């Protein structure tokens, strides 16, 4: 038996395995890696386009800094942060997860940076027969976000408010047509865009720039407006960069970018 | 190195992976207190998800076994490159990420998919229904059964089949009365694997069938949804899933062992 061969084979195998693992982690998707001078931002999925554009601006203004963005449902990001995920900044589509994190002292000093109208949206084909909110139960398939997702909570609230002008059974009639409650608002939008749903409740910012979708006019008092807060995560590795990001978002340029994307300004009259 | 030292070293090296795999499952078992577990199981998401998972996995496994047995039989008897190609192609759902499988199912059977027109003509709409859950489960679990069944059929002694045919048995009779009983342990193991895979299916179900309590929210989807609001429910549900899967796999081992010994005695 060749005794000296075994340790060499073992070492070679181990080295190969380690190099494979190392290269695999370089190509790992979605999960934000904390690198040198990389700001890690956890943001609600409705902020995808706007924050991606702002990240490009940020990187230009702060040479050497990189912005790493992770988008998901606000509730999902909150769970990750509660379980020790490493991020520098958290931007949520609802004050509830943010307040919970603040109470648990996982984030410091949340500040609102935008608002968003909740919109009932129909696809082009469905728009022919569904023109007002009262027509919504006519839709064959409606998709909402799950009740744990901010967009899902807002949808439930909107339906509750709609019971006043449209009848106490309106929410029930709509819920009969709901076929799925997705785990973030972009999944809802995807089902609508794929043609798998006729109507959905998403944000006004999701409709902006999508001419194939129509937002239904909402009767008086049915309006639901989401407030988006952001905060630096306690124990963040790049608190300076996080503060600079907050400044950018709250600056005139950041606010204009948000409004161009369909968001509402933080302060001001309800539309 | 002495023989004893080498043996210990081998055992230690092997123990690394075993410990790594066992630890999270152990954590699932010991972390929640009994009271927390009970509270978790009382969560309203639990009962509908359990019922739905039981119903859909039973249905999908039955479908996979009934439709997969003749397919595996033919594949096991076929020779040539075309058969080998088809066999490999049928393995694809194994390597395709479940989310991709979900998108693919939408593109095939969805409202704007390849089969949209004929399905609409029949008045059938699959996506976002309980049927869609079964379809997704069949898609991801079938290759497990096919692989095991084909191997099991290949192990059946050709001579026994020849004897059966020489006695005038028709192809169906050969399959049903000779091949299946002889390959039964392997078929059972394959069915159990397919069942376990269907039980754990998440990505394709979420994409193709959606997430609606009582209709399409299976155990894994309920766990994911519950995770964001009630950790105890998620833990309890996860434990249920693990216990179920473990029971299934244990059953397979017993059946396989007993079946194999039976086959050896008969042969």
Briefly say what this structure is.
The complex is a heterodimer of chains A (271) and B (267). Chain A is α/β, with parallel strands linked by helices.
Comma- or semicolon-separated keywords:
heterodimer, A: 271 residues, alpha/beta, nine-stranded mixed β-sheet, 11 helices, elongated, disordered N terminus, B: 267 residues, mainly alpha, 13 helices
Report on this structure.
The complex is a heterodimer of chains A (about 270) and B (about 270). Chain A is an alpha/beta fold and about 270 residues long. Helices cover about 40% and strands about 20% of the residues of chain A. Chain A contains eleven helices and nine strands. In chain A, strands 1, 2, 3, 4, 5, 6, 7, 8 and 9 form a nine-stranded mixed sheet that branches. In chain A, strand 1, helix 2 (about 50-60) and strand 2 form a beta-alpha-beta unit. With about 270 residues, chain B is mostly helical. Chain B contains 13 helices and no strands. Chain B starts with a helix and ends with a helix. The model of chain B has no long low-confidence stretch (mean pLDDT about 90). Classes of the chains: A alpha/beta (about 270), B mainly alpha (about 270). The interface between A and B is medium-sized, with 20 and 21 residues.
**Structural class from helices and strands of chain A?**
alpha/beta
Cα separation of the termini of chain B: 44 Å
The percent of residues in helical segments of chain A reads 40-55%
**Overall strand count of chain A:** 9
Which percent band covers the strand fraction of chain A?
Answer: 15-25%
**Main beta sheet of chain B: strand number and arrangement?**
none
Rg of Cα set of chain B: 22 Å
Low-confidence stretches of chain B: none
- Which series of helices and strands of chain A comes N to C? HEHEHEHEHEHHEHEHEEHH
Q: Give the integer mean of the pLDDT values of chain B.
A: 88
- Label the overall shape of chain B: globular
Reported for the largest beta sheet of chain A, the result is: 9 strands, mixed
Percent in strands of chain B? under 5%
């Amino acid at each position: 038996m060749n005794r000296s061969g075994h340790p060499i084979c073992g070492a070679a195998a181990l080295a190969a395995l380690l190099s494979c693992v190392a290269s695999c982690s370089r190509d790992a998707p979605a999960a934000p890696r904390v690198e040198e001078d990389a700001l890690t931002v956890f943001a609600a999925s409705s902020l995808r386009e706007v924050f991606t554009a702002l990240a490009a601006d940020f990187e230009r203004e702060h040479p050497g800094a990189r912005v790493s963005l992770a988008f998901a449902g606000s509730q999902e990001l909150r769970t990750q942060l509660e379980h020790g995920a490493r991020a520098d900044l958290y931007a949520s589509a609802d004050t509830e997860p943010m307040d919970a994190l603040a109470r648990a002292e996982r984030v410091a000093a949340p500040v609102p940076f935008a608002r968003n109208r909740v919109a009932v949206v129909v696809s082009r084909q469905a728009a022919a027969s569904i023109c007002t909110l009262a027509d919504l139960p006519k839709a064959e398939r409606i998709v909402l976000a799950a009740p744990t997702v901010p967009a899902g909570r807002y949808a439930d609230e909107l339906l509750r408010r709609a019971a006043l002008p449209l009848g106490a059974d309106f929410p029930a009639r709509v819920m009969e047509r709901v076929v799925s409650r997705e785990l973030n608002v972009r999944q809802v939008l995807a089902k609508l865009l794929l043609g798998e749903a006729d109507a959905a409740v998403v944000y006004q910012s999701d409709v902006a720039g999508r001419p194939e979708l129509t937002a239904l006019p909402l009767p008086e008092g049915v309006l639901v407006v989401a407030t988006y807060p952001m905060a630096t995560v306690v124990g963040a590795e790049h608190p300076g960069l996080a503060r600079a990001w907050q400044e950018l978002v709250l600056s005139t340029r950041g606010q204009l970018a948000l409004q161009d994307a369909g968001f509402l300004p933080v302060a001001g009259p309800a539309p | 190195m002495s023989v004893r030292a080498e043996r210990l070293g081998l055992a230690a090296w092997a123990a690394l992976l075993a410990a790594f795999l066992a630890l999270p499952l152990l954590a699932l078992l010991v972390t929640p207190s009994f009271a927390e577990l009970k509270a978790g199981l009382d969560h309203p998401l639990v009962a509908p998800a359990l019922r739905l998972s039981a119903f859909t996995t039973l249905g999908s496994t039955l479908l996979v076994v009934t439709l997969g047995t003749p397919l595996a039989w033919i594949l096991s008897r076929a020779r040539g490159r075309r058969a080998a190609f088809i066999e490999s192609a049928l393995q694809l759902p194994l390597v395709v990420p479940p989310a991709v499988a979900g998108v693919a199912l939408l593109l095939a059977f969805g409202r704007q998919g390849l089969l949209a027109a004929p399905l609409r003509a029949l008045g059938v709409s699959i996506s976002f229904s309980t049927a869609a859950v079964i379809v997704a489960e069949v898609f991801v679990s079938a290759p497990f059964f096919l692989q095991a069944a084909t191997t099991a059929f290949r192990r059946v002694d050709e001579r026994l089949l020849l004897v059966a045919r020489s006695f005038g048995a028709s192809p169906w009779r050969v399959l049903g009365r000779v091949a299946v009983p002889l390959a039964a342990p392997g078929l059972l193991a394959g069915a159990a694997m397919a069942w376990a895979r269907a039980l754990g299916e998440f990505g394709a179900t979420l994409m193709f069938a959606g997430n609606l309590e009582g209709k399409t929210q299976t155990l894994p989807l309920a766990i994911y949804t519950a995770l964001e609001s009630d950790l105890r429910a998620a833990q309890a549900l996860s434990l249920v899933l693990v216990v179920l899967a473990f029971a299934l796999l244990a059953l397979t081992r017993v059946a396989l062992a007993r079946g194999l010994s039976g086959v050896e005695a008969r042969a």
